[in-house]
Structures are given as C-alpha cells and as structure tokens.
Amino acid sequence: MTEIIETERLILRKIEESDCEFVYSLLNSPGWLKYIGDRGINNLEDAKTYIREKVVSLYDQHGYGPYGVRTKLNNSLIGFCGLFKREFLEDADVGFAFLPEHSGKGYAIESAVSVLDNARDVSRASKSLCYYIGRK
Known about the structure:
- The chain contains 4 helices and 6 strands; from the N terminus they run ββαααβββαβ.
- By secondary structure, it is an alpha+beta fold.
- It has one domain (4-130): Gcn5-related N-acetyltransferase (GNAT) (Aminopeptidase), CATH 3.40.630.30.
- The protein has a 6-stranded mixed sheet.
C-alpha cells in the first residue's frame, strides 16, 4: 500500500490513531449510520480502538485498507477511500465515505480513481470491484 497518493485536489494517506476525532465524526455522521451502520463509536477512545482493530488490521492482514482523504486546500480530513476485503466478496472492493459537508463535490470519484490506479501497481488485490451505495 502506497503511503501517500496525491490527486489534483486531494491527499490520501493511511489512517492513524491521531485521526480519532475525524473517525469519531465520520462514523457518527448521518450517511455513515444510514448506509454503513452504527459501529458503536461513542467517544474518542472507541475511535482509537476502531482505528487499531479495524483499520490498521486491514493494512496488516491484506496490505491495503482505507486512506484518510484530505483536501489540499486546507489539509483537513474529509473522508475515507480505499480497498476493503469484505467477507461476502472474493476480491477487494473500493469503498468510500465522506463527511456530509463534503458530499457532491466529486471527491469520491477522484479518490476512488486514484486508489484503483495505485492498486494496479502495488496492491495484492487481484481484482477490484466497485460497490456503489445509492444516494437520494
């Protein structure tokens, strides 16, 4: 997994425990809760545990996982995008989630394309499948 991926407007890098405030906000956002589900992240310690047990473990087990997506404009974390190993799929899946105030700006497509381009060269994933969750 490449440490940092850059696009025209975005910087993607691995999620770290220091990103716990962002993870807490994202995992409790209305879109996450509606489309992905409640992960029981009730405080910053829960967010740190989630990062260690769910995110970092993906990096360790599969060699890939979610990137934190930051804007180049102000370097703030706005979402997740990356490859995920899902139990119900044979191969890796591209997934993304963004804070509500950053939806509808093309960040999901921009980051997903960069993740797929990168995966062709460095990931252990043999294929990548896109699983799109519809929006209203």
